[in-house]
Amino acid sequence: MTDPADLAHDVLLKIAAFVKSLPADQLADLASGEAKLTLVPRGGRAAASAAGPAASARTRPLSRPVAEIETMLAEIGTRAAAVQYLNDERLTVPQLRELAKVLGVALPSKSTKEAVTTKIVDSVVGRRLDSSAIDRMVAR
């Protein structure tokens, strides 16, 4: 049987590697207590917090107003640039879902961050680019 001290050491090394990979804003949230690390069993969900589901459903406000994000997306010329813009904003999945809701983008209930970002970009930027391409083809 493995010594608990050895197990604790292995766990702390894994946690340190994970925390080291976090962006500065998430590290600041952990340090200030606004965020916490949670143990989730493999293939399972985290236990509900004592504060209840309403506390876990709260999201931080968007880094910019929705209108500003929408304007930026309208000015971006490629899908890749739009994806990069949203990634640079470092929005969480709940924030991206809120943005999609305000922009009128329908999402499946269990979408990954990448899938939500792609849906937003396709709906806001992709349709405009597709329409422009069709207009250019018709004009020929």
What report would you give on this structure?
Helix 6 (93-103) runs parallel beside helix 7. The chain is mostly helical and 140 residues long. It has seven helices and no strands. The chain has helices spanning 4-20, 24-32, 53-57, 66-75, 79-88, 93-103, 113-139. It comes from Dactylosporangium siamense. This is Rho termination factor N-terminal domain-containing protein.
Elements, N to C (H/E): HHHHHHH
What is the mean predicted local confidence, pLDDT?
A: 79
Query: How would you sum up the global shape?
Result: elongated
Give me the number of helical elements. Answer: 7
Broad structural category = mainly alpha
- The percentage of residues in β strands lies in under 5%
Distance between the termini: 75 Å
- How large, in whole angstroms, is the Cα Rg? 20 Å
Helical content, roughly? 55-70%
- The total of beta strands comes to 0
Give the low-confidence spans. Answer: 50-57
Largest sheet: none
